[in-house]
Amino acid sequence: MEKEKELHLIHSLKSGDNQAYKYIYDHHYVLLCKIAYEFLKDDFLAESIVDDIIFHLWEKRDTIKITTSLRSYLVQAVRNRCINYLNLEREKREVRFSVIDQQGEWINSVFPSDDYPLARLLENELEQEIRNAIDRLPEECKVVFKKSRFEEKRYEQIAEELGISVNTVKYHIKNAISRLNADLSKYLLLLICCFWN
Amino acid sequence: MRPTNIHTRIEELITNYLSGSLGTEELAELENWLKASPENQKYFRQMREIWFSAIGVGEEIRYDKEEAFRRFLAKTQMASEKKVAKRYSLHRYMYGAAAIALLCIISFASYWSGSEQIKKQFAEMVVEAPLGSKTKLYLPDGTLVWLNAGSKISYSQGFGVAERKLQLTGEGYFEVTKNEQLPFEIRTKELELRVLGTKFNFRNYPEDEEVSVSLLEGKVRLINYLKNNDLCYLEPDQKAILNKKDGQLKVSPAEARYTAEWTNGYLFFDEELLPDIIKELERSYNVKIYIKDESLKTFRFYGNFIRKEQTIQEILDMLASTGKLEYKINGKEVQLYAK
To answer: Which residue, of A3, A105, A106, B210, has the fewest CB within 10 Å?
Structure first.
């Protein structure tokens, strides 16, 4: 059933039906921007890149082939564009670098980009599983995790806001990651299997 | 799988890394741990993926999908109109073919050669700055343009209504009026630039070996036509240089305000190649300069001159004072020799 709906959607995209593009904006746009933001850390760039990808899909609709789910296609496109962009950035950074830049630089050099790409969980519509896993975190742990992850707040800031110690903040974040890992790693393993088959 | 023991040092390091609190020494420690084994790397990657994947759950509203869809509609509509207009004019030419074959061939040729031109129903506006002088003008949308000697821009009469696109040959300094609905686009053969509103200098003379864009304010997007239409974004006080031979686009820090100095009558050379400097001098002083020794072509010079106050001879004296070259002037012709 889902598969049929997906095929119909892709067909509508190819025929240039605006409603099908509206569907992308309604269901995927925000997530795609968030993914791009993770790579680029800049909202303006993130939105520009996602706009370009959807426009590109429209422009090339006659010839484009989508063999995966639409969501996977879009997530992969975002990832590739971002990595491309960061590679160009890297050339810039040879002249202008700081400790922070070097940190990202080095971690990226350890992992070739296409070898073990990020956002695979998101590609596979496991969003509900991820949501559930986060919901299952103990209350204070969840609050701390969200402040760190989504609001990008520092340990000290979170500690002050919640009236707890920095060590407690750290403990909660470690605990959250470890629990999420326990809950979600089975999907990751599954994905790797799919990937190799 | 059971939750891991979270009290180990490595859990601490990974948590600090993910939440953006890793210090320099800790980074080295994490690095060593990662280098120790592929298993460690795998574990780290998995943690990174878990952390990454949580983003979908954040509830903060930062992106406006309705607005984005409107942008999409405006853009696709513009693109379709362009296509329809092209098809329409093609039919008209076909008609012409039945009547007068020769006329058809001529107009068909001009149609194709101008296929990048904006809509047919609008006349094309062309503004040129002759050799030895520069031109200042305002575009219909209020954007300020300075055209340097020997440069040209062209745009449709509809500029500022449905789009803001123009083509540039040579060098221009732009102060673009902000309009988030209509991006401002400049096309040259090798490089396209898009902005919403900002100040920048764009230089691409056909005879230059490099295309250069310097940004004073705001943010611009560049598309490198020479290499997979790669995207690149510039920040204020950065300069992008595109090598026309190999298509390499490099971005470096620059004192961008100096690159627009020519609008105030200054000639500013920021480590530029001698052949490019010479072209600039030729255009500014309307002279011919010949490089007599090949070895001179790779020299770069830095300097700031005032065109109105300094003669070509004074500038040549300054170049010669570097000890790398000598010159001879004969009327409007200059010869340069290696020293």
So the answer is: A3
Distance from CA of A58 to the nearest CA of B (A): 8
d(CA A141, CA A159): 12
Contact B204, B170 (CB under 8 A): yes
- Chain B CB contacts of A45 under 8 Å are 233
Question: Parallel, antiparallel, or unpaired for β B191-195 and B230-234?
Answer: unpaired
Residues on chain A touching B252 (C-beta within 8 angstroms): 92, 95
Q: Are strands B199-204 and B230-234 parallel, antiparallel or unpaired?
A: unpaired
Residue of A13, A178, A191 to mutate when probing chain B, most B C-beta within 10 A: A178
Q: What is the ipTM of this complex?
A: 0.82
Encode pLDDT of B240-291 as tens digits: 999 988 889 988 888 777 777 777 777 777 777 888 888 888 888 888 899 8
Q: What is the mean pLDDT of residues A122-137?
A: 85
What is the structure's pLDDT at A107? 52
Give the nearest partner residue to B56 out of A34, A118, A145, using CB atoms.
A34
Strands, sheet with B288-291, edge to edge from the N-terminal-most edge strand: B288-291, B333-338, B325-330
Cβ distance B58 to A173 less than 8 Å, yes or no, reads no
**Could you give the CA distance from residue B323 to residue A1 in angstroms, rounded to a whole number?**
79
What residues have CB less than 8 Å from B12, skipping those under 6 apart?
A170, A174
Confidence grade of residue B76 (pLDDT, cut at 50, 70, 90): confident
Instruction: Pull the structure tokens for residue B310.
Output: 């300094």
Of A30, A91, A151, Cβ closest to residue B250: A91
